[in-house]
Amino acid sequence: MSGDLLAVSDLHVAYADNRAVVDSIRPGHPDDWLIVAGDVGETFAHVTETLELLRDRFARVVWTPGNHELWTPEHDPVTLRGEERYLALVAECRRLDVLTPEDEYPLWTGTGGPVRVAPLFTLYDYSWRAPGTHTKEESLAAAHAAGVVCTDEFFLHPEPYATRDDWCRARVAGTERRLAALDPGVPTVLINHHPLRREPTEIMWYPEFAQWCGTDLTADWHTRFRAAVVVYGHLHIPRTTEYDGVRFEEVSLGYPREWRARVNGTPQPVRKVLTVR
Ligand SMILES: [Fe+2]
Ligand SMILES: [Fe+2]
């Protein structure tokens, strides 16, 4: 098989300008796969319609949820909350033939392969605390005092878990078991909306926001689970970094005002994840 493994995240299709960017996303080769690393949109229909459109174009689409997909916005006719909403999105993806974190991790055998492509969904647990704070409560209080509070606090409901951090810990435990059971002879591409390590958040304008960006529980997954590359989004700071010799790719498009400020305002939404090894 030839073709490329491509990735994008944070399409935020509620913005008409971003929908125009999505319309421009095409495979360069009929065998290309597209990774969509979360924050497609806020409403249920926006998410499923966009994935359907991309699935019609790419040989395979691999999706993992962002925090925005998990919101229950007041204007959305789909009123499901928390895990039920996530599982309803997974069911829609199965109907559309889009792979999710609930499916068997597929093997990529095109350019840069073979690699096991693993879409993950691990959320956050408030362990990336605001500067000078030592508990979740102190960290949240610091964020409120700074006026930097993630909208998840109002729209991302954790049911049936008591808290978002409980949901995170359950996701981490289940995902860790699956990753540990993979063939140790095959490298992985780990895909998660939130970064697996804290360092990428250190250049954010508001350090208080990091508590909604990930968890310390995944800090060694890139080495433990043999990642050839880690793909993430959420920060809206597209760039390439390296930790312990493993490449991390932030592949977000972001909001129109953000992508207009980059590269002469021309969005280059899709990134090649692997090259020939
Ligand atoms: Fe986003
Ligand atoms: Fe996000």
UniProtKB/TrEMBL annotation:
CDD domains per the UniProt record, alphabetical: MPP_superfamily
Top-level taxon: Bacteria
Single Gene Ontology MF annotation: hydrolase activity
Calcineurin-like phosphoesterase domain residues: 6-238
The protein's name: Metallophosphoesterase
Species the sequence originates in: Virgisporangium aliadipatigenens
